[in-house]
Write the structure tokens for this entry.
Amino acid sequence: MTQKAIAAKVQRLRNFYNTGQTKKISFRKKQLRRLRRAIRKNEGAIMEAMRRDLGKPAFESYAGEIGVLYQEITHAIRHVRSWSRKREVRTSIIHFYSTSEVLFEPYGVALIIGPWNYPLQLVIAPLVAAIAAGNCAVIKPSELAPATSRLVAKLVRDTFEPDYVTVVEGGVDAARAVLKEKFDYLFFTGGTAVGRAVMGAAAEHLTPVTLELGGKSPVIVDEDAHLPSAARRLCWGKFFNAGQTCLAPDYLLVHKKIKAAFVAELAKTVKEFYGDDPRRSPDYARIVNVRHFDRIIKLLRGRKVIHGGGNSRKEKYIAPTIVDGVTMKDPIMREEIFGPLLPVMTFARIDDAIALVNRLPRPLALYYFSKNEKKQKKVLAGTASGGACVNDTVSHVGSPWLPFGGIGDSGMGRYHGRSGFETFSHQRGVLKRTTLFDMKLRYPPYGKRVKLLRFLFRIVG
Ligand code: NAD
């Protein structure tokens, strides 16, 4: 699509926004219901597209994409009216005889750019929030999941007015071209390096951004953890979608006393989940393309594989793999793995585990396994991450009641449920003054009134 065509598209959305239709709550709810119906109608096609793009098992398409979206949409339909209600707040004494309120207003036209790993959910969940907040939107899905990108374009075309929500397909060039236009909000999900470039492009127009990025999310398993369930929950979060999940546990820090027992438990769990040969399992996904396959395999070079390691470039298959003898200097600990390799390191004291986590950039998630509440508190207080689970992995992303987003290198801003609505809303503070009287105190000439002012502010603040 040419720059001119993109500019014209965005202008049409702006014109639509300016009609004011999207400000009505009834309109927003109607669009959300339409979206839910469209997903329902296309469930089979969605699962098929994901299978083609990522070899995603139907269960994982449902759990990680379709189901999450139903929950988000239904939650938004149920709550959007109360979220949108103006919030009356207190009024300072210096504004005597006034009222104060916060209005939640749409930004206008939003741009949503998505990645390939959850290629439907990660553009449609932000869209749900954008619609709930009353915005128009342009979506740029990832070119690396082409079947899903086409499906998103069709689904949007069949569901919404083209001047209300629209899709621009394509790769980096398309993304760059779209980013040249001025938007009122930019919601980006992808890698940290690209996030930096996207934020730079947004700065040109002073467009506010949410960046949902990646990172190395640690799992800490302490000596008192319940090992069988910890192993199951860790393997599930790590090997779901073959490790290509922004929130996947990236590396394991295990208490040295239980390392042998826990690694054995992990190996047993992988077998239980995927059988003797995970390549044959219908429940195990593939790597998105050979570039990523090669990148992940390179991380294994010279490392000690203690479980798994099997792979096939032709099939873009990498087995669930546990890697030992890892140090912080190894490439596997210096970049986000984004694949089914689990490096294992040990700690003797929980403070050492906390210190190690804090040596790396702030991750999108942190997972801690222990029954001890004091230690749970200590780990949460001693670290920073976008979100966290205690005695689980990844599950927090599935709750519309919890804000989801990163911190530091893993991103900025948050969404899901009310957080998403607030992200796509401008909070407009409004003071309403009486006309019954007009205190002259603040108007020049001020004379010696500074003394009175000083007295007043001593009382007020
Ligand atoms: P990516 O950053 O390569 O691509 C994301 C999107 O940006 C794509 O639509 C792509 O076309 C576009 N893009 C690529 N280069 C661009 C550029 N120079 N300028 C503008 N746009 C550009 O990410 P990816 O490989 O698709 O996804 C994997 C990454 O995303 C991982 O790092 C992962 O952790 C992260 N991620 C984060 C979340 C989250 O919710 N925080 C979710 C999924 C993935």
